[in-house]
Design goal:
alpha/beta, 5 helices, 7 strands, 28% helix, binds adenosine-5'-triphosphate, binds magnesium ion
Length: 149
């Protein structure tokens, strides 16, 4: 996959999520990094669509984590915005299902990386003209191979 993307519309964000879903495997951890409104949830919705999730993927801000089981792989969607630290993450007990699932975490930088041997960091940004930029940053040899550089 191309590591760098310029996304002019929400549909473009959705399309990138669907493309990313195509390379996802059970046990994967994807950490979405970017400011408020950057498109983290929109990207996750595209990932959900690519995995074949039919139920709506909405921002899990008030429930922190939601599992969608109706796709090719279970999608664990986490919003870590309100979590205080790594201890809170462990309390969510995400490990239990992480091996069979794809975990996508908004606001998880510095909190969830320990949950998997390697992970994909997705850096989203919002330019002044509202266009979004995305960079895929592999952490670990498996992801480096899948993303290339
Ligand atoms: N490429 C894009 N161009 C323009 N707007 C976009 C793009 N991608 C997403 N958006 C829009 O940006 C808005 C915020 O998106 P989204 O809720 O996904 O952001 P977020 O990063 O999850 O925000 P939060 O930090 O609140 O969780 C939505 O209205 C979405 O449709
Ligand atoms: Mg969000």
């Amino acid at each position: 996959m191309n590591p760098d993307h310029v996304l002019a519309t929400p549909e473009d964000t959705h399309t990138l999520g669907r493309e990313l879903a195509g390379v996802l495997r059970a046990g994967d951890l994807v950490v979405l990094v970017g400011p408020l409104g950057a498109g983290k949830t929109a990207l996750t919705q595209g990932i959900g669509a690519g995995l074949g999730v039919r139920e709506p993927v909405t921002s899990p801000t008030f429930v922190i984590a939601r599992v969608h089981r109706d796709g090719r792989l279970p999608l664990v969607h986490v919003d870590a915005y309100r979590l205080g630290g790594a201890a809170d993450v462990d309390d969510l007990d995400l490990d239990a299902s992480a091996e069979e699932s794809v975990s996508v975490v908004e606001w998880g930088q510095g909190l969830v990386e320990h949950l998997a041997d390697e992970h994909l960091e997705v850096r989203l940004d919002r330019r002044d003209d509202d266009v979004r930029t995305v960079r895929l940053v592999p952490h670990g040899p498996g992801w480096a191979e899948r993303i290339g550089g």
